[in-house]
Each structure stands twice: as C-alpha cells, then as structure tokens.
Protein: Similar to Streptomycin 6-kinase
Organism: Thermobifida fusca
Amino acid sequence: MNNVVTQPIDDKQQERLVRRFGAGALHWLDGLPRLVTELMDEWGCTVEGRGPHGQTSVVFRCRRADGTPAILKISPDPALIGAEGRVLALWASTDRVPKVYAVDTERGGILLEAIEPGFTIAELGTVPPMEQISSLITELHSIPLSDAQRQELHPLISRVNFLFDLWERARVEGPAADLVPAPFMHHGHALARTLAWEEENAVPLHGELHPGNILDGGVRRGLVAIDPRGCLGDPAYDAIDWAVWQTESLAEIEERCMVLAAGIGVPHQRLFRWCVAFAPIFATALANRGRADTVAFKVAMELCAA
C-alpha cells in the first residue's frame, strides 16, 4: 500500500468532508485505505497519485490494466456516487462527460475516464467564449429521456432548496454574516423557487455546472462536464455561473445572458433573474473566502439588489 493510499487527504479536505457529512466521515476515512485497495484490486487498477478532492469525495489518479489513465472517486455517501453514475450514463453518447468504467453503489466508488489535458476552467482562469458554453449546455440538455429516466431525476426545486439551505448556514456561520444581509438570501431563495416552479419545458440538468466542473478536453474533445448533480428543470439554470463568473459589472452579466440565452433557447431576462436569485450565494462564498474587498464581491452585491 503506497503513501498516496495510506495518507489520501490533508486537513482541509478532512474538514470539508466532516462539514458535509458529520463526524461519521472520520470513521469512514479510517477505513478509506482498505476500501481503495479493495476497489483497485477488483477493477485491475493501480493508484498513481491524488486527484483534486471535492466537497463530497476523495479522488485518485490511477491506471487500468490496459495502461489507460483513469480517475477513482470515492464518497462517504454511496447514494451520491450511484446517482452520478446514472446521470453520466444518460449523457454517454454525447462525449461531453467522462466514460464510466465501473461503479460500486454499495461502497461508494466510481471509476471514470481521465480527461486530458483535464485542467478545469477555474484552474485555467480564462473565460471561454459563451458560444462554447451554450453549445455544451445545449448538448447536455438535448438527450432524449424515457419516462422512467425522467422520474429518476429529482425536480430542480429540490436542488434549489438544498443549496439555499446549505449557503444560508454558511452565511450565518462565516464572515458573510456581517457582510451579506439575511434578506438578500431570503429574497434570492424565494425568487429561485418561483423560477424553478414556473418552468414547463423541463430538461435534464447537470445541476452544478460551474467553472470547477468543466474540464478542457483538448482540441478534439472540447469542453467536458464532470461531477453532475443531475436534476430536471429550467434549461437556464445550468448557465447561471457562466453569466456571472469573472464579470466586472451588471452590464457585462446582461451581455453574457443575451449570448447564453440565445444559444440555449431561453429568454435572456429569465436567465438574468436566475443570476439575481443566486447572487447572495455568490456573495456569501466570496465573503467567507476573504474576498469581500474584490470587484467580484461588489458585483455580486449589486446583483443581489438588481
């Protein structure tokens, strides 16, 4: 058992997992080296290094028996991994998500295709053309769904309520408590609920399509979406982060909304309202990361009041 497996995470990742899953995550982490070894043996892979850990999982870079690189992702919540595997399977024909090589829904492990070069858009730090983003979103939304598949996806309203509950707790418990007024969060939640309920043309949504969840797949592959939180709802929802990320004014957000909305086939005013709804979440995230003195925070607060 190599050091990567025996010491898979740092203190910050441990804190994230405990914050998300409670103290039970510590017991899970105690058994993680054994779990990784078991899955790698069963799937004929070897661990080569640590991957970028998220809020809900631990990630390893590995290699399959045929020499192809892969990603092993393991979560304390097997249901999350099972749901991710099912959603990725819906989009398997698009080439816009990683291939799924294996899933263990009981132990919470999934083996995925490694995307090359594989840097996230957040890591690259450059905003792609909005036409590329709308093309990705449209392709994800356009897959045909059977009635059974539609019933497996949670409605968008469930995702909205989960996120606003999560970020309201983050606001109250962090520096944002003194910087982002509670009425902003309450108004945003109410607006998001209204938008989620209004939409009749529900499509399969990625659910968390921010710059950290889109990879550079190179010239041939293009943009590739990872870590979906699949749900069913308003197509404008998946474009929210892209209308706002790294903007410096409300006018710039409105311009992006125009381009994105035209590409995915929704009214631009509707996308802008989604941005207003989620503005207090953006502001809370920035404040809690010590970025209340940035242009991004100023724009987020202006958007809250738009």
The domain at 121-304 is CATH 3.90.1200.10 (Aminoglycoside 3'-phosphotransferase; Chain: A, domain 2). The first strand starts at residue 45 and ends at 50.
